[in-house]
Amino acid sequence: MNHSEGSAMNGGPSNMVTDSARNLTRRERRRSTRWLNSLYHSKTGMTGLLVVVLIILVAIFAPWIAPCDPTRIDLTDMLTPPAWLPDGTMKHILGTDSLGRDVLSRIIYGSRVSLLVGICAVLVSGFIGTILGVIAGFYGGWFGTAIMRVTDAFLALPSMLIMLVIIGVFGPSLTTLIFVMGCTKWVAYTRLMRGEVLSLKERDFVRAAYSIGTRNHTIMLRHLLPNVFSTLIVISTLNVGTAIIAESSLSFLGLGIQPPAISWGYMLSEGQAYLSTSWWIATFPGVAITVTAIGIIFLGDWLRDVIDPRQQGR
Questions:
Q1: Are 237 and 306 part of one and the same domain?
Q2: 149 occurs within a structural domain
Q3: In 10 A of CB 215, how many CB atoms?
Q4: How many structural domains is the chain composed of?
Q5: Among 104-118, 175-189, 208-222, which stretch is predicted with the lowest mean pLDDT?
Q6: How far apart, in whole angstroms, are the C-alpha atoms of residue 8 and residue 71?
Q7: In a 3-state reduction of DSSP, which class is residue 208?
Q8: What pTM does this model have?
């Protein structure tokens, strides 16, 4: 073997690694380009992304965006109408409530609580439901059947009723609200993940992993979970909007976020007594809840199209 042949052979693995890295970079670029093109041509995706990004930025920079202190009481400005109505002022663009607090500032600060509850509740419910669903679908047998019977029992009971009972026992608080919502919304994840795993575990790549002696937990973590991730992302995104609405409903009933914390649902509850005279107190928080939920749903629908490989060929 001459020197040139030895050099070529020694450089072979290095060249292969370099080529693999280049191919991976190209695939990542193509994927990013496909995502951007899909987002550009998707009106719902672009709308949802803009709404979600706007709400997140508002929540992060609330102290700098809010024109007034949201908890400051000024009885001389109570029930001031929005700026475009007679007797309205630019100081309070969306008006004030029955205690003279600025509605716009309270909506801006309320976005923090709504996003926190929605995201944390989905993380808790998604974690519990995904684990139980994957285990039930992968192992099956009496253990999987027992998990599904418990799931069916939870589905038979109204989730709102369960939340009301638990919050009534432990008392309303932010931590209790997140825990209760997370522990009552996991059933949807369990049923969906079980169905996905039952389909995937019959695929050739899972059978191949079995044949070479791969351990069960490795198969679940490396082969099954990545393939159900797109479905998990979509349902989680949609459930964030549902969780925000549920939090607002509980706060409206007085069993959610308690003062002095600010919640869109609690603002609705405060404003219901003034709908005939000072409609803006309840209307604008309701608009914020609706726009946020619709934006998250639109974003989830677009994510389904770009992440789920079954949708890409359509």
A1: yes
A2: yes
A3: 9
A4: 2
A5: 208-222
A6: 74
A7: helix
A8: 0.76
